[in-house]
Design a protein that fits this description.
Blueprint (H helix, E strand, L loop, with lengths): L5 H4 L34 H10 L2 E2 L9 E2 H12 L4 E2 L6 E2 L2 H14 L13
Antiparallel strand pairs: 1-2, 3-4
Pfam families: zf-C2H2
Protein name: C2H2-type domain-containing protein
GO molecular function: DNA-binding transcription factor activity, RNA polymerase II-specific; RNA polymerase II cis-regulatory region sequence-specific DNA binding; zinc ion binding
C-alpha cells in the first residue's frame, strides 16, 4: 500500500477556497459537531501538568493538609498575622481582599454613602 499525500487523502473542493486568486485548494480545520479541534488536553504531559497544579500541600507551620498551593499562601497569613488589605474609611485590616471589599460596602453605608461606592477621590 502506497501512503497518500495530504492532498490525496483529504479531497477539497477548489471552489471553496483559493490562495491569491489561484485555484489551489486551501485546507481549513472543519468543526466536528460544531466544535473546533483544540490542542490535546488529554495528552500525558497536559494531564500531569494539571495534576501538579491540583496537588495538595501541607502547611509547614501547623501541618494542616489538603491545601492547594494557591490557598496555602492565604492560610499562612493566619500564622504570620499579615493583614495586607485595609479599609480606606475606618482603617480596619483584613487577611483577604474579598472580606475587605465586603466590609467596605457596609462601612461606606455607615459613613453616609448609601450606595457603598468608593469614597476615594477620582483623578
Amino acid at each position: 500500500m502506497v501512503p497518500l499525500s495530504i492532498a490525496e487523502a483529504l479531497p477539497v473542493d477548489p471552489a471553496l477556497a483559493t490562495v491569491g486568486g489561484c485555484a489551489s485548494p486551501v485546507l481549513r480545520p472543519v468543526p466536528v459537531r460544531g466544535v473546533m479541534p483544540q490542542p490535546a488536553m488529554n495528552s500525558p504531559a497536559a494531564v500531569s501538568a494539571v495534576r501538579v497544579l491540583r496537588k495538595n500541600v501541607s502547611c509547614p507551620a501547623c501541618g494542616k493538609t489538603g491545601l492547594r498551593a494557591t490557598s496555602l499562601k492565604r492560610h499562612l497569613r493566619t500564622h504570620s498575622g499579615d493583614r495586607p488589605y485595609k479599609c480606606d474609611l475606618c482603617h480596619n485590616t483584613f487577611t483577604r481582599s474579598d472580606t475587605r471589599n465586603w466590609h467596605f460596602q457596609r462601612c461606606s453605608v455607615r459613613h453616609g454613602n448609601p450606595t457603598g461606592a468608593s469614597h476615594a477621590p477620582h483623578p
